[in-house]
Amino acid sequence: MTPKTVNCTEELIKGRLKKATQFLEAAATVHDLADDEADVADAYVTLCVHAGIAAADVLCCRALGEHAQGDNHNEAIALLAKVERKLANDLRVLLGMKTRAGYGHSSVNAQQRKRAERAAQHLVEAAR
Amino acid sequence: MNFARPFTVLTPTLDGDVLEVLARADQEYTGRKVTSLVARGSERGVRDALDRLATQGIVISTRAGQAKLYRLNRDHLAAPAVQTLANLRASLLERLRATVDSWDRQPVAGVLFGSVARREASEDSDLDLLIIRPADCQADNPKWERQLMDLQAAVTAWTGNDARVLEYGADELDSSDHAPDPVIVEAIRDGVAFHGSPDDLRRMTRRR
């Protein structure tokens, strides 16, 4: 169980932060343009998940000099928990939603949408 | 870990697969029968493994006419270790049960599903856990979130597999106006409950 990680460069940190911000802004745009927020809930949450993952990479890069790579959710969560456990829980919430989106066909509800938004905002704000 | 071949935790050889088969039942097997149950390697390879293990005393070999019969020596000092390795999936379920039973905020149901439940999981497989949150507990309840985070990390540490908790609220299971998610149907059909029972899930998803 050797976690797969990538060493960070300043360029990588800047690039991941730009993506994190871009995904979160895109989520807000999707939300604002929709007549009914429930119509775009899945797209909104997906953008929040991507924002959170990119922000987690930035946070790990700054504190540890490396970020998780690959599909292993728990390695990414454990790495971020070394930086801050509360933020690691935010990442867990977002990755859990990604897992659920992959398994199910039902749309996310308002409560989950709010939860994804909060988790992504926490992570992106901490990464800025 | 590989739940289809639990002895690969210690050894990738045929000897491990042979021990896993012999640990399944306290009875004598022919070399051919062991080969068919191991479902890998040649009959010659399996017989060589059986003879190697008999030399160590962990396998008892007896003659029945022309045939040789083999069984696990359950009195051997190493027999409990062999049986433990052969039953790692059961040990996982026991730990899941004990852990979730100790939670302050109990879920309505907890189900192991997917490839681990079907005994098909390799070391690269995710380990899927379905947890149903009670209706009176908010998803962002700090105690509830801490429990899930600790469980996911613990199960990953116990097995080496990437544990993924799939969380649903009990109120989301009511399928009066839509079909339940396929994952819920799968968990009811193939899953192994470690908290509550599949019948509880069945009742909750029943169309009204």
What does this structure look like?
The complex is a heterodimer of chains A (128) and B (208). A two-stranded antiparallel ribbon of chain A has the order 1-2. With 128 residues, chain A is mostly helical. Chain A is built from 5 helices and 2 strands. Chain A starts with a strand and ends with a helix. Chain B has helices spanning 14-22, 31-38, 43-55, 79-86, 88-101, 142-159, 182-190, 198-205, and strands spanning 29-30, 59-64, 67-72, 109-113, 126-133, 162-169, 192-195. Chain B has a 4-stranded mixed sheet, sandwiched between helices. In chain B, helix 2 (31-38) packs across helix 3 (43-55), helix 5 runs antiparallel to helix 6 and helix 7 packs antiparallel against helix 8. The longest helix of chain B is centred in the last third of the chain and has 18 residues, at 142-159. In chain B, strand 5, helix 6 and strand 6 form a beta-alpha-beta unit. The A-B interface holds A 1, 71-75, 77-78, 81, 88-89, 92-93, 95-96, 99-100, 103-106, 109, 111-112, 115, 118 and B 139-140, 145-146, 148-149, 152-153, 156, 160, 162-169, 172, 178, 181-184.
